[in-house]
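Need Arginine--tRNA ligase's 3D structure for a figure. Predict it.
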Amino acid sequence: MDIKKLLAQQVQEALTDIQLITDKPVTVRPAVRPEFGDYQVDSMMALGKLCGENPLVLAARVADALMKNSHSRTMLARAEAVAPGFINLFLRDEWIIDLTGQAANDERLGVARQNAQHIVVDYSSPNVAKEMHVGHLRSTIIGDASVRTLEFLGHRVTRVNHIGDWGTQFGMLIACLEIAENQGDISLSDLEGFYRAAKKRYDDDPGFALKARAYVVKLQQGDAWCREMWRKLVDISMTQNQQNYDRLGVSLSKDDIRGESFYNEMLPEIVDDLLARGIATMDGETAIVYLDNYRNKQGDPMGVIVRKQDGGYLYTTTDIACAKYRYQQLHADRILYYIDARQHQHLMMAWEIVRRAGYVPEQVTLEHHKFGMMLDKTGKPFKTREGGTIRLAELLEEAVTRAHKLVSEKSPQLAAGELETLAEMIGIGAVKYADLSKNRTTDYVFDWDTMLSFEGNTAPYIQYACARITSLLRKAAATEGPLPETFSGTLSFSTETERALAVKLLQFEETLLAVAKEGMPNIMCHYLFELASMFSGFYASSPVLTHQERSRRQSRLALCALTGKVLSTGLETLGIRVPERM
Ligand code: ARG
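Structure prediction for Arginine--tRNA ligase:
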């Protein structure tokens, strides 16, 4: 149930009832304080101004019309106009109870399936032959949380891992592979070292560089052996990356790989088309598109090269082709890109060309869900002590080691196997959550201590709340017998805390919708943190199993059970695992 939308519709209806027709959308948001009700309308201020009516008077008329509407009255106990023109909406207890009961009985927890769109999501996208480092973490996990959320809402999602598997660097790598093959060792267990050695040799040894360049040409011409070596490099590299994905619990598989090389054959045709239609022009041997919206320092339109003098294509040309492909071949309704903020201008320019050429129609959105950098505690880019990049595999190992230490101190009674599993869930969960819980558009400070804390907006805190509820329900099953099949008739409120918890539980759907729209999992983190905190408050102040009245025990257990399900489903949409006990 999307309460926000439902209420907005009713306010819209109330406006029609008082003969005020507006095409301005009405916005309703959860109230920030209990005295403001459950939801608040703040559109009357602007609307009053627009039609020359005192906003408070208008708010009062709308509130009145709302409460005259029998449909709204089933949902609302009260609508109250307050200065300077807000309308405070108070939901009816019976309505909340009814809906909470329905959510508790529903395997989707009351969340409606959306009209399915086909959404293509480009994420992770590391470069081949380099090991994944912390720089790839953000795209990988924010993208994956977004994908999981969209799928939960009922959309069809195509994951695309747009790996960097093409370019001149393959010449030097193949030249090195040739040597390695002659020595009979191409396992490439140390891919990073292999890459560095190739680069060094390329820079230092002119003979080698010559050979490397010759291999680039051969590879591009489709030479069978070069292709085979190239395949080998891509395979080895992606097999290693898959280990990171698996450990992270990221839902990417080898089938989702559509690297840059995939679009290669489409590039000549695209540049020809751009030239033929006058979108691109030739500047000597170079094909360029001039963009009026981008000006250089001299105030002239900036040019984007789509084909180099030597006939080579660029990263931008590939992104033009891939947007076209995602619409024309995959029939996407919406296309999302989880890429570093530093590539924003690149994408905007590529898409401007895409739009001008009409490759993707306006109604299909191309969205750059950008994110900032990962910084250390001193505000510098997150690096090893020696200033190198931190390997992702190493970071994950450290997370689990740290979690292991924490858990063995906190729960020494756990059996070794259980401890291991728990450390994995908590360590990986903490790293993921720390990133997901920040607004992705800003840089983010990586700090082991806060992310692994059991207090505050962290994975362990929410995982712990889940485990606590599971344990409570286990106990209840022993003393109370099985929980009722259906909760209808079970729920009732005896305190404000219970009521507030129920309202919060009903806001799960609007939270999912917000994450899906903005591609911002931090909205879900914030919601889960608030829910877990409310639950803590409720649990501390309201006896559940020790209450004398059976009906009260049952009602509270029902709330606990639904809270547990919403918390764990919420964590699942973030790609974070939920322990049975902690
Ligand atoms: N491989 C690129 C990088 O590491 C990211 C690719 C993102 N996707 C895209 N369609 N450009 O910077």
